[in-house]
Amino acid sequence: MADADDHRPDLRSDLRPIATRVLFEDDEIRVWDQHIDAGETLGKHRHELDYVLVTVRGDGPLEVAFHDGSGGALGDGVTLQPSRGQAIFVPKGHVETARNDGAPYRAILVELKRDG
Questions:
Q1: What's 55's domain CATH number?
Q2: What is the DSSP track for 33-101?
Q3: How would you write the pLDDT of the chain (116 residues) with one tens digit per residue?
C-alpha cells in the first residue's frame, strides 16, 4: 500500500539552489560559490541553515525580496550595498529572490550545519 504522503505535491519543487555551486562540504559546513551577473535574478530559494556571506566582488545594489512572510523584522525586502571583504551572518529561515542591479557580484557562502 502506498503511503498517503506519496501523493502530496512537492512543496519545494519551485525552489532553486541558494548559490551557483558547492565548493566544499563536510559534516559541519557547506561552502558555496555565488555569482549573480549584472541585471540577473537569483531564483526563489530557502535558507535552511544559518550562514556567513563574504563578498568577493561587486557593490550592488542587490534587491532582496522575501517570500511567504519569511522576512520577519526585515519586512518584504531589503536593499544590500555589499563591499569587497564584507562578511555578514545571516540566520536561517528566509525564502527569497535576489536581483543584482549593479556590476557582476560574487560571494562565498558558508552554511553552518551544526549548532554551537
A1: 2.60.120.10
A2: EEEE-TT-EEEEEE--S-EEEEEEE----EEEEE-TTTTGGGTTEEEE---TT-EEEE-S--EEEEEE-
A3: 444 444 333 445 688 988 989 999 999 999 999 999 999 999 999 999 999 999 999 999 999 999 989 998 889 999 999 999 999 999 999 999 999 999 999 999 999 998 75
- pLDDT tens, position by position, 60-81: 999 999 998 999 888 999 999 9
User: What's the domain range around 39?
Assistant: 28-112
Residue 61 CA, distance from chain mean position? 16
Residue with cell 569587497: 84
Rounded to 10 degrees, the C-alpha dihedral 63/65/71/75 comes to 80
Number of domains into which the chain is organized: 1
The pTM of the full predicted model, rounded to 2 decimals, is 0.82
Q: Are 88 and 53 in contact (CB under 8 A)?
A: yes
